[in-house]
Amino acid sequence: MAIHLVLPISILLSSFSGAVVSATTFTLTNSCGYTVWPGLLSSAGSPPLPTTGFALAPGESRAVDAPASWSGRIWGRTLCAADQAGSGRFACATGECGSGTVECAGGGAAPPTTLAEFTLDGAGGNDFYDVSLVDGSNLPMVVVPQGGGAGGNCGATGCLVDLNGPCPADLKVVGSDGAGIACKSACGAYGRPQDCCSGDYGTPATCEPSASSLFFKNACPRAYSYAYDDATSTFTCTSGTASYLITFCPSISSLKSSVSSNSGGSTNPAGLPLVNDTVSFAGRGDRSSSSYPYAYASAPCPLVLAAAVFTWLCVASHHRLRL
């Protein structure tokens, strides 16, 4: 009799515990015209993901399930190949994680790299996420929550603009053909405390946006542009209610599809603006010091149009995806 009683109880407890633990799905989509190798890094003490790196061909998607309370980073590596000279070591021109294989195996992204950062089931029962250009940029990337409920600041974020071309010369990383393949942050380029928000500049009161960070912010107003850019760049969804679509090189049409499918088919009555991924420059140097060695980026009409896409995302699904 005891055996018959224990077995159902153990099954019940197992079923209950299985219902409590839930996974969050990240769907990574490559809308670039070239292969991207996503890298995934779990934070210290965070449970591991089933993969830490793989290849995504143009147009390909892959789902990755993250365990409850996971935190870490996701990014795209570009221009990757195995060494043909004999070692066979796998390496990438941007986003390199140093593992020597397609799997990053605990290695983080070498800057400059566009980063998607997540903390699942964080404070207040919320998922926290952002797209960061603090370490520079190597390709456009957008995060769009699918679901998420009506609470919090649960909306699309990221960078629609390919900054590799318009990147200031002193920040630009070029490939073997001389074309831009990434754009450094000022911290990465110069390492000065005022650029890195370190030393005497290690607080929000003392570390202010530079002309370099404004280049990124003007182009990508929802992304982190420097260390203390929290107010406009951190987003939250109620934990356990959202999955996340991460798109490399997103197009307006793909954003429209992903947002509309999450908002009951809402549309934008004003229509979608076109995006021209260029940046113009007005003068040189920091606005407070003529010796500051950065290009100051203005926000011309094309970048205003890019920002307008995010405005449309807000209008199209105000009750589900608030920006």
UniProtKB/TrEMBL annotation:
Query: GO terms for biological process?
Result: defense response
What Pfam families does its record include? Thaumatin
Asked if the keyword Cytoplasm belongs to this entry, the reply reads no
Q: Which residues form the signal peptide?
A: 1-22
* InterPro entries per the UniProt record, alphabetical: Osmotin/thaumatin-like_sf (IPR037176), Thaumatin (IPR001938)
The family database entries (Gene3D superfamilies) matched by this protein are listed as: Thaumatin
Instruction: Give the transmembrane ranges.
Output: 294-315
Keywords of this protein's UniProt record, alphabetized?
Membrane, Signal, Transmembrane, Transmembrane helix
User: What is the recorded name of this protein?
Assistant: Thaumatin-like protein 1
Give the organism's phylogenetic lineage: Eukaryota, Viridiplantae, Streptophyta, Embryophyta, Tracheophyta
